[in-house]
From TrEMBL:
Protein name per UniProt: Delta-aminolevulinic acid dehydratase
Signal peptide coordinates: none
Keywords: Heme biosynthesis, Lyase, Porphyrin biosynthesis
GO molecular function, one term: zinc ion binding
Organism: Apolygus lucorum
Catalysed reactions, as listed in the record: 2 5-aminolevulinate = porphobilinogen + 2 H2O + H(+)
Lineage: Eukaryota, Metazoa, Ecdysozoa, Arthropoda, Hexapoda
Amino acid sequence: MQSTSLHSSLHHSVLREWNSPAQHISPAALMLPLFIVEDDNKKEEISSMPGVYRWGVNKLLEYLKPLVERGLRSVLLFGVVSSLPKDDFGTNADSAANPVVKALPALTKAFPELLIACDVCLCPYTSHGHCGLLNADGTLDNDRSIARLAEIALAYALAGAHIVAPSDMMDGRIGSIKEALRKAKLGSKASVLSYAAKFCSSFYGPFRDAAKSAPSFGDRKCYQLPPGSRGLAKRAVERDIAEGADFIMVKPGLPYLDILYETKTNFPSYPLFVYQVSGEPSRKASRPLGEQVQTAL
Ligand SMILES: NCc1[nH]cc(CCC(=O)O)c1CC(=O)O
C-alpha cells in the first residue's frame, strides 16, 4: 500500500506557499478558526471568549467577506451543535444536517480561493463528549474510533474541505484517514493536517465551551499527552509523519518550544503549524508567545 504522498500537499496555492521558503510573514501564515452553528442566521457570543462568535452560515459569509478582501487566505472550521442529538456514535459529526457539512459548499462557492480546513473530532457530537468511541467500561475503542474518524474526514473532504485536521490524538488515525481518502480518489485533493503533539490541558476550557465539547465524565488524559512529556510528544510527531500526515500542528503546552525546536530540527521538510484561538484574553498572551516561537525557529 502506498503510505505517503506529495500531491496532497500541492493542490492549493496556499498549500504551495506553506511549502515554499518563508521569507516574510504573510497572511497565508494565519489561519482563522471559525465555530459554525446549526441555525444559518445566528451570531452567538461565546461567553468564555469575549469578541469571538459562533456563526450560522449566512452570517458567516457576511463576516468573512471583508476579511477575505483584506487578504485572509485560510480558515479552520469547528462544528457546534445544540439542537441536533448527540449519541455514542457521534452520528451528527457527518450527517447532512451537520453545520460544517452544510457550510462547506456555501463557503467554497462564495470564496473559491480560500483554503478551508475542518477539525475532525467526535467530542462535539458524542453524548459523552470524548474524542473517540468508547467500550462498555468507558475506555476508548481505538479501532472503531479511527474507522469512524476516517468516515467523518471523508465526508468533509467530499463536501469540499481542502484539509482535514484530526484533533483526537488516537493511534493510527492518520493512516486510516489517508486510506479512506485514497479509496475515494481524494488522495491528492485533500491534505491531512495532524494535531501531532497535543498536551492534556485545562487551557482548552474556553475552546470546549465554544465548541460545546467538554467531556461529561473523566478527562482526556488517556489520549492527549501529559504536559511535559517530551518523549511521547516526539513519538507522536514521528508516528503521524510515518503514517503520511501532510502538515504537522504542534499545540501549545509546557514543553512546546522544545517540541517545536526538535520537530523543526528532526523533520526540516515538514511545514509546522502553531494554532491558537484568538480573542481578547489570548490576544494578550499570544504576543510574548509569538516572540518566543520566532526565537525557537
Ligand atoms: N478535540 C477537539 C479539539 N480540537 C481542537 C482542540 C484544541 C483547541 C484549542 O487550541 O484551544 C480541541 C480541544 C480538545 O481536545 O478538547
